[in-house]
Design a protein that fits this description.
Chains A, B: Belongs to the MoeA family. With 640 residues, chain A is an alpha+beta fold. The first copy, chain A, contains 17 helices and 38 strands.
Chain lengths: 640, 640
């Protein structure tokens, strides 16, 4: 084993696309599309494989457009209030809307304008114009007129017009069929018991859903262990029944080589490695004139490379063009460092604060599928840029509707499980409103308000001198802002320790023990400030604490490290300890407030969030969670 | 029978909505939602009925993030090029990406940075930081963390995250089920033979497709004749199996009374008549605590009232909010008259000409389903406005993606079937490009260019003095514009007459015959100018011609009137006569050109349209149509 030069041929994205799609074009993948005839009523969302011309005119006869009487217009000329005209049987005929116009009549008078003297005689006081209230033959569509062109995705109204045009069946493109082959010895199916090293195989389900959204069908093969011949066999089998194959490599480099070699063995390896991040180890090939894609195993890499390569492929196989996502200009709130040579795709949260969109980067690890759940957009950093500075104006591709982002209340600051609960209650009660939170610590929240990057900030900042929470910090750092401070809850901070407290930790003073590994919160977190205050009071130097430098961003992340055994304890809230079934040693109660910028206080969405905050249901849910005192929840603590 | 006071209680739209949704809310329709448990893999597009918290942490163990060797970081401190450190078996362990971190090790060194001396010894020249290249427990999601809230529509990435969170099944809202009851004695099924007075029943298929788009399921009952008791029976049967019922009245007023009375008999009639146009005769009720909607029969009225009432209903039944369509500001190109007292919904074409969006109203008849196919947007005219003036800036709801509209080449002017063929060829070859045409006649096209409402105009305007086509008109009316004139084709104009020419029409001079009814084109149409020129040459006064005042807007519409027997002849092109199997008496060949505003000539979409225009395939299709000479097709005739 030696240093390996992997992906030496990593291509820039556009070049990789050119190579792949150029080869597919030459292979005729996009020109020879399979067609099937289906019933018009079942054609929603399908793509027409031929122009659809009307077979008949609609209406196919001259029809009464209203309920009334049909007449010959010439016979009514001169009618007025003072000189009414009486029409006798034969000169008029009662018609309902849609009835054919009787022969030798050219006009319909609305029922409301007819005075019936008897069944045989009517009086009219207005003349009728020729063809008034008549739907002439072909008013809607004339036989042979184009209803919808080829390559058109059918909508409900198209279905109506095509049926009106006399069609029962039409030709559409067959949905492309893809076989997905999950590979990896470490994979287990959802629901199976998990041992260390096992990975739940869910990429294939994500791919199937993506393919469905793009109009293709997917067959998921049984997962395969890392076995060259078995996987090769599966690919050969897949090629017999599918229009394309997706091999989902696990995360081991060894297997990616399998995919590349299998493609080489069976057909043509076109691309191995693209200089994008995440998603570098993507593999693109052509076997038996069918596209075969090797998609990386990390879920974010997988999702992005599916979007970049499989989406345009699937759309073009159906004669559809690839339309880019909507883009907006936004201010980047934080510095994002990126390496030269790779085009980076950063998932971001987007908020609309006042008139401006602001973006904050999410976790950049390729393994965090939740970053895609939380993301509102994708920010691309070109290969030749080293990153983006805080305050830069950037272009962002939207993953959500702009409206949805505009209806989002952005809370940046300290993390509390109660914010998740609040977000859920808001969505339940007001589906149109979203609450988005980012965890950057209490001080981070204050800075976010100062820079107008959030509507509100969550914080629990104890002022050592006064013993007061939050207000002194707001006075100090947000001097120029008007703020409304609303209480979220009082909560208990304490040491989160392993179930049963095996190391017999009694309080902060034990943190200096040599046998104890601590896990800390990031700088600017209220919890860290609390720790530092306690250490100062106890005269313990931070260097004495093993793990003081190891930072996590949320209470739950701290608890997870304790649960996972990489730390013996961490400072956090009771609900986090309870969530992961850990023990808790109370250290200090504290007040957690939301500081809301006054200029957004009257915003409808903010008011609705506050309404939910004050609801009995929300307070009940906090009580169930434990460790919260809701006696002031939703009350205005102060304004500035 | 007397004048009827129908819809005396027609309510303003917002009031009707308040009455309907208020009553549904009180009935608890939106608070008691049915829930079902389904497999996560099958949940794409479904709505969560509960918040989904992670059951496990992901990763659930500390995992190697790369291929390499696991080490204890402390053991590597001090390693450098000059002072490499040698690790022996036991001090390192080879790990693949995703492997669990071995006990007592806290760091992974990438394979590329390791020098293997033997299987038992490695050399490193960089120190490892604690936890480097390690995915800590819960990096993606920590057990108990919220993955997605209640009322959330599930996307592919959500499916991945929920599976990663340890779920196999989740609770989602059941899809609401609606029964659609088509009623009307005049209805026939698609594909059945059509007699005068028959109407193809397609509304139910449009409704089913709309409901599918909104997340509901639909059952279409057999169509019912206009029979009070039968329809009532059907409604009662529907209520047993559905969450809501949609009765689709035909177009006769009599039947709408049936629907209202049936609802009154069975439950509560809430709204009968809404002051909107089209869509006034909508009926809304509540029977057995289930919504029952009486939707008008005209297809456009039906579509709009479904959108206005059924869409928010269906969405709210699934805990979803109704998000309005994207709106843009646009310049209205033509005067639109609207009646006071009704809120009018005008279907419009939208074009982006330069930096500005411009809208043109489409056919306003409630019976023209094709107007919904052609529409790019809906322009609402409030009940208290008499209309909109040409040049007014208006707000328009988009029915299409803005991108799609921006990729549309707008051709306004004379009608020719060849433009339909061209539009189809463009869509076939370049799915991302649309060609939109509006038929307002050659002079209308010139005026549209002058007002910058189109990229190009189709025209065939003969200058009597010079015998030249188009150029003299462009010189006269578009003096200040730079124009590129491109030939579409030469074509034959003539009299379109009934098959076999029963009235023995020989030419224009026969139009003055008393026994002949003519159908004309609208003012400003090149064909009408040609007629006027010929009449002048023959010294025939227009008043002599029966039907001179009856105007149609397209060649096909003229042909349709001849085919339908409401006229004996009309002037038009050979392809229109052939399309409807009519006879044709040649009158004059003429040149049809596209005048393109020079400032848009270089636009990518315009260039692609020209490329298609010049293609062999397009010319071949024109030849098949007949009556076209393509010897100059695609050539630049002149520029100005």
């Amino acid at each position: 084993m030696k240093k390996k030069d992997i992906y030496l041929d990593a291509l820039p994205l556009e070049e990789a696309k050119d190579v792949f799609f150029g080869e597919l074009e030459r292979a005729g993948i996009f020109s020879k599309k399979s067609v099937e005839e289906i019933n018009v009523s079942e054609s929603l969302g399908r793509i027409t494989a031929e122009p659809i011309f009307s077979k008949i005119s609609s209406p196919h006869y001259n029809a009464a457009a209203v309920d009334g009487i049909a007449v010959l217009s010439e016979r009514t000329y001169g009618a007025s209030e003072t000189t009414p005209i009486i029409l006798s049987k034969g000169e008029f005929e009662v018609v309902d809307t849609g009835d054919p116009l009787p022969p030798n009549m050219d006009s319909v008078i609305m029922m409301e304008d007819v005075n019936f003297i008897s069944d045989e005689k009517v009086e009219i006081i207005f003349p009728a114009l020729p063809w008034q209230n008549v739907r002439l033959i072909g008013e809607d569509v004339v036989a042979t007129e184009l209803i919808v062109p080829e390559n058109h995705r059918l909508r409900p109204q198209d279905i109506g017009a095509i049926l009106a045009g006399g069609h029962v069946n039409i030709k559409v493109y067959k949905k492309p069929v893809f076989v997905i082959i999950p590979t990896g010895t470490e994979l287990v199916n959802p629901g199976e018991e998990l041992k260390p090293g096992d990975i739940i195989e869910y990429n294939s389900k994500v791919f199937k859903a993506l393919l469905a959204e793009w109009g293709a069908e997917a067959l998921i093969f049984e997962k395969h262990k890392d076995d060259y011949y078995r996987i090769k066999e599966a690919v050969e089998k897949a090629l017999k029944i599918a229009d394309g194959v997706i091999i989902n490599a696990g995360s081991s480099a060894g297997r990616e080589d399998f995919t590349a070699n299998i493609i080489k063995d069976l057909g043509k390896l076109l691309v191995h490695g693209v200089s994008i991040k995440p998603g570098k180890p993507v593999i693109l090939g052509l076997v038996e004139n069918k596209p075969v894609l090797g998609i990386p195993g990390y879920p974010v890499s997988a999702f992005l490379t599916m979007e970049l390569f499989a989406k345009p492929l699937v759309l073009r196989m159906q004669g559809q063009s690839f339309t880019e996502r909507e883009k907006i200009r936004a201010i980047c709130t934080r510095r994002i460092v990126s390496s030269i040579g790779s085009e980076e795709f950063v998932r971001v949260k987007i908020g609309k604060i006042g008139d401006e969109f602001v973006v904050s980067p999410l976790h950049r690890g390729a393994g965090t599928i939740t970053s895609l759940v939380r993301a509102d957009g994708i920010l691309r950093i070109p290969a030749n840029k080293e990153g983006i500075e805080a305050g830069d104006c950037v272009e962002v591709e939207l993953l959500k509707d702009k409206k949805e982002i505009e209806n989002t209340v952005v809370i940046i600051g300290s993390h509390d499980v109660a914010i998740d609960i609040l977000a859920n209650e808001v969505k339940r009660r007001y589906p149109e409103i979203n609450l988005s939170s980012a965890n950057v610590g209490s001080m981070g929240g204050i800075m976010a308000l100062k820079r107008k990057e959030a509507h509100a900030a969550g914080m629990h900042l104890l002022d050592v001198d006064t013993g007061e929470y939050n207000i002194p910090y707001i006075r100090r750092y947000l001097r120029d802002e008007k703020i409304v401070l609303v209480n979220l809850a009082f909560r208990e901070q304490g040491l989160i320790v392993m179930k049963g407290n095996p190391k017999n930790i009694k309080g902060i003073e034990d943190l200096k023990r040599k046998d104890i590994t601590f896990v800390n919160r990031q700088k600017g977190a209220g919890t860290r400030l609390l720790l530092d205050l306690k250490l100062k009071q106890l005269n313990i130097s931070p260097e004495k604490i093993r793990g003081y430098d190891r930072e996590e961003f949320t209470h739950l992340a701290v608890a997870a490290q304790v649960a996972g055994g990489t730390a013996d304890c961490g400072l956090g809230i009771l609900s986090a300890a309870k969530a992961l079934d850990l023990d808790f040693i109370p250290v200090s109660p504290e007040r957690y407030d939301l500081a809301i910028l006054y200029e957004y206080f009257e915003m409808e969405a903010v008011q609705k969030v506050l309404e939910v905050l004050r609801s009995v249901e929300f307070k009940e849910k906090l009580k169930v969670l434990g460790g919260y005192d809701t006696s002031l929840t939703g009350e205005i603590i102060g304004g500035d």
